[in-house]
């Protein structure tokens, strides 16, 4: 069975490279804005990633959820922090977020499996 985390990251990197190779100024600026928004500032990176996770779940963007789950883990978020964050997202977004909550939990397990 292919590793879902590696598969997601490989696809994301491949397509980002293709998009950025088009040399579209608007797309490059959006990518740059995204990168800079998640740099340390008044809020630490972990907090920003957890906020990104809430927004992504509420917006029902599975790719974004995966990205922010991985970034949250890399910035030191614990499983308990992630589950609490996803709970807030489900509260704010309503029951329509539940399918995304399930997939997020499954992807977190995949991320934890990389530690084994």
Quick structural overview:
This protein has 116 residues and is mostly helical. The chain contains six helices and no strands. The chain is globular and about 40 Å long.
Characterise the protein shown here.
This protein has 116 residues and is mainly α. Helices cover 78% and strands 0% of the residues. The protein is built from six helices and no strands. Helix 3 (45-59) runs antiparallel to helix 4 and helix 4 (62-74) packs across helix 6 (98-113). The chain is globular.
Q: Can you lay out the helices and strands and say which pair or pack?
A:
Elements: H1 4-21, H2 25-37, H3 45-59, H4 62-74, H5 79-93, H6 98-113
Helix pairs in contact: 3-4, 3-5, 4-6, 5-6
Radius of gyration: 15 Å
Order of helices and strands: HHHHHH
Number of helices: 6
Strand content: under 5%
Helix content: over 70%
Beta strand count? 0
Quickly give the structural class: mainly alpha
How many strands, what sense, and barrel or not for the largest sheet?
Answer: none
Q: How far is the first residue's CA from the last residue's CA?
A: 16 Å
Q: How much is the average pLDDT?
A: 95
Which residue ranges are poorly predicted, with pLDDT under 50 across at least 5 consecutive positions?
none
Report the principal-axis shape.
globular
Structure characteristics:
78% helix, 116 residues, single chain, 6 helices, mainly alpha
